[in-house]
Amino acid sequence: MASTSGLQRRRGTGHAPLSNDPGDEEVDSTWRLSGQRSDAAIERLSGTGSRNRIDPGSGHQVAYDPRDLVDAGEERTCPHLTLMEEVLLLGLKDAQGYLSFWNDKLSYTLRGCILMELALRGRIGIAKGAHLRREDVSDRIIQLHNAKLTGEPLLDETLRHIQQAPPTSIAEWVDLLSGDTWNMMRLSLQLKQVRERLAKGLVEKGVLRTEKRNFLLFDMPTHPIVDMSAKDAVRRRVYALTLSQNVHGPSLYKDEKQDRAVALPVTRALCMLCSAFSADVFENAMRHLSTQVREQADEHVSHLIEAFGQWPMAPHTPGGGLPPRSSVDTAQARSAKAPFLKQRKPRMGASSTDLVLAMRTEYEHGGVESAFEVIAGVLQVLARMDSLV
Prior knowledge:
By secondary structure, this protein is mostly helical.
């Protein structure tokens, strides 16, 4: 009976001792005292950062890793949709709910979006080292800065790959995540079924729904759009950078349903615009415009990809681009192979000068240089893909 009473005492933290043995009272009080200090003690002994806490309802110990919990601060500064989801949403047919069968560039571009999204969230950057600075920006090595999970399955899977893989450049990572490699030992790094997984994520967020449609002899899942306001918001960001000549960062994501102060709004919108153009879904948002306007918009976005797909970004603009010319690292970072584009006034859309000024403000208020460097490297990879296809 004594053993049974001891077991019951250990299952509840607030029960009085069930026996009259003073030794049991001493053990019980010692156990309660150690339970109050269990968090710090276990964290100090384990050295892994994990914690144990007593569930007041059941009395059981619950182990968890605080690094895996969702950061409320990050949730307020990140938009409802990721870059990949926005690009996929632009490519989806509204009523039919499927992508074009002839689009062979979307999958590759989505892998680049994953790297840019991780950079915007502060998870990855460029490895430090003077010898790396002499390489083209797309050939520089990606380094893990923060292994905390994001809650997005594709982003978290990519984080685990980067954490476990040897040092790899930006261009190589886009190839590996796409499965475009002859190295059989690294085929496991490929992200599979990216489009379908993104669509399922949008279903969970209430933007899409799942249906079955018959294509010839097969039934295939489709994802018609339920919340058209989400796609309209993405379109408005496209129009803000291509049809308007004024750049106003706070208005780009003010349509968010939740109270979010999205970080780096201009930088994020530029990444989405360039990715949509590279994935051949940009034209879906411009179909209602005249042919002449669409051609001018294509020329404008193509120029933006070339201007911001180098390091420093848009060096032809006043101040030396982003980051400013006064930076010592920036002077060493520019590759001799990087093209120097002449400054020109666009016939439509926000100029690269105005974009650099807005992005410089974001850079000075919490931006990380190596994160912008990753974005420049991915844009350079996408620009090369456009020139080859």
